[in-house]
Specification:
alpha+beta; 8-stranded parallel β-sheet; 10 helices; about 20% helix; globular
């Protein structure tokens, strides 16, 4: 059926089931007019900067000279560092190089519109001046400044929304903060009383944060598993009372409704909420500062991730981990500067833009939509010509936003399969995605049918499939070019980013086409880079052949194959799509 291009402001409340390390489950997104209005500024921002920072930056992932596996900010837990020894780090924490204006300016110049600061991470050390606990950056260190106050002021100066992260359930400094991943090496967890921790420390600190730092646009809670429902409700009520304009993410727990869904870290589910969701992602393989940081993401990959996120109706929160001196590592600064370079041409296609109007995704890149424009983010640098199916009317102009060049285009129905818009691309000027604007006087209509561009591969995304009995996946689509097509099942590696896994090897299913049924077994027949995930590859599994003897509508089913949509679920294949690839003739 035809569809009018959606604007970002049309975000809905559909919530797809996800699983985030077993603790970051989905939450109901509230949809009263008041809730929608509260979320509007956050939603329109599309892009934010996260900062993970604390005394763990002194260690930088090393304990007694040895690298501790895992995330650097989890080193106290991973190495079971005694609290007495870890607390001594504060005496040496003196980040004289901290310049909050530089931090926030970096975010602003990258095109971000909100900034989330870790007021207290899992180690329990408050990175602001807390009156509720002397275990804080002002009273326990020689630094004796309040970074949160300085960041709040800088956010006002640069017109950036202030967000605050607070680890409400995990606190390795407090003997009563019992629950998942608590401090069991210093304390007898059987004697702990979570409500005592909540009354003494967590609730008072939340009140401080919400009362003392001006307008807060976002409260970013973390680690919802194990929190009593009444404690979560109290936190929710405090935010609504003291910062009624602040949005709340879905990691508060306790069954409390959220303003938006926090997806799994560094990861995108296949079945994403239509809107009101956010993925938090790192720039390397750690959130907190690591002296041995690896897995640095290329700038082009980060730009692709941002374009993909907006194309699916979400927000991206990209992390920076300052070192113990308060300086953001040079490599991180270069990454954000590179994003800023790209955003100079792509900002109208990102900030305030909405999801793709097309039913299918594209191997060459991503599509976003504005008030009266459609934007093509072309990540395939070798692409010289591009065709789109289903846009009912010709654009007024097609422009490469990087160069300002007007691009030639044609709109035709030469093959009788509906409108085909073809445009010639200008050569890329750098390694970053090209952003092409299709400008219209008013929004055109877009046919939601899946129709092949003549002679090209065709993607059948799993989220566009109809689900039949026995969890069968079914697609209806139109082929424009007869011939033989290789059916390739594309799936994702999963598990943690330090140890990607592909658990689908040997799974079986049945491919059903008009020619009959063909059983298949999944194998790793190849792999492709997946820039939006970076640490996890796309696995190619060739499962059969589709013989297209005629143009027109066709059907294809996948039967008896367990399909999952979780980074942690070993019970099936994390399927992205089928790709129908033309088989070259030997003539």
């Amino acid at each position: 059926m035809p569809s009018t291009l959606p604007a970002k402001s049309s975000k809905s409340a559909f919530v797809a089931p996800t699983a985030d390390e077993g603790v970051h489950g989905p939450s109901v997104v509230r949809q009263t007019p008041e809730d929608i209005a509260r979320r509007e500024l956050w939603s329109e921002s599309s892009f934010g900067v996260f900062v993970h920072w604390g005394v763990s930056a002194i260690l930088g992932g090393l304990w007694h000279g040895k690298h501790v596996e895992g995330l650097a900010e989890w080193i106290q837990f991973r190495a079971k560092i005694p609290l007495a020894e870890y607390a001594e780090l504060a005496k040496d924490f003196n980040p004289a190089d901290l310049n909050a204006r530089d931090w926030v300016r970096m975010a602003a110049e990258a095109g971000a519109k909100y900034f989330v600061y870790t007021a207290k991470h899992h180690d329990g050390f408050a990175m602001y001046h807390s009156q509720a606990s002397a275990y804080n950056v002002v009273d326990a260190t020689p630094f004796q400044r309040d970074p949160l106050a300085e960041i709040a002021q800088a956010c006002v100066e640069y017109g950036i929304m202030l967000g605050v992260y607070y680890s409400q359930t995990i606190d390795w400094e407090d003997p009563d903060a019992v629950g998942p991943s608590c401090n069991s090496w210093d304390f007898d967890t059987e004697k702990g009383d979570f409500h005592s921790y909540w009354r003494r420390k967590a609730a008072p600190q939340l009140r401080e944060i919400l009362s003392n730092y001006g307008d807060i646009g976002l409260m970013w809670f973390d680690m919802p598993s194990g929190i009593p429902a009444e404690c979560a409700q109290e936190a929710f009520s405090l935010v609504r009372e003291l910062q009624p304009g602040a949005v709340i993410n879905s990691r508060l727990g306790g069954g409390v409704d959220a303003d938006y869904n926090s997806m799994d870290d560094n990861y995108f589910n296949n079945f994403l909420p239509v809107n009101a969701w956010e993925t938090a992602a790192t720039t390397n393989d750690s959130w907190g500062f690591s002296k041995l940081a690896a897995g640095w993401k290329p700038v082009a990959s980060l730009c692709e991730t941002l374009a993909y996120t907006v194309s699916r109706g979400g927000n991206l929160l990209l992390n920076a981990g300052p070192d113990a001196s308060g300086a953001i590592p040079e490599k991180v600064q270069e990454q954000f500067a590179g994003i800023g370079t790209w955003m100079q041409r792509a900002v109208s296609a990102i900030r305030g833009a909405g999801p793709s109007p097309f039913a299918a995704s594209f191997d060459w890149g991503y599509v976003t939509a504005g008030e009266s424009s459609v934007y093509l983010h072309v990540a395939d640098l070798g692409k010289q010509e591009l065709s789109l199916r289903g846009i009912a009317s010709a654009p007024d102009s097609v422009r490469d936003l990087g160069t300002g060049t007007l691009l030639p285009f044609t709109l035709s129905e030469a093959d009788g399969r509906g409108p085909l818009l073809t445009l010639e691309l200008a050569a890329p000027t750098d390694e970053l995605p090209r952003t092409i604007e299709l400008a219209f006087t008013e929004l055109p209509r877009v046919d939601q049918s899946i129709v092949q561009v003549p002679g090209s591969p065709l993607r059948l995304d799993v989220w566009n499939a109809e689900t039949g009995a026995g969890e069968a996946l079914r697609w209806n689509f139109t082929m424009a070019t007869p011939g033989e097509y290789r059916v390739v099942l594309l799936s994702k590696e999963t598990f943690g980013n330090f140890n990607p896994q592909w658990w689908a090897d040997g799974l079986t299913g049945t491919l059903e086409t008009e020619a009959g049924s063909t059983p298949f077994t999944l194998r790793r027949d190849g792999e492709e880079l997946y820039p939006i995930l970076h640490y996890w590859k796309v696995v190619r599994s060739e499962i059969g052949v589709l013989h297209v003897s005629r143009t027109g509508q066709h059907k294809l089913n996948i039967e008896d194959l367990p399909v999952v949509d979780s980074k942690w679920d070993r019970g099936g294949v994390n399927m992205i799509a089928l790709r129908l690839e033309p088989v070259a003739s030997e003539d």
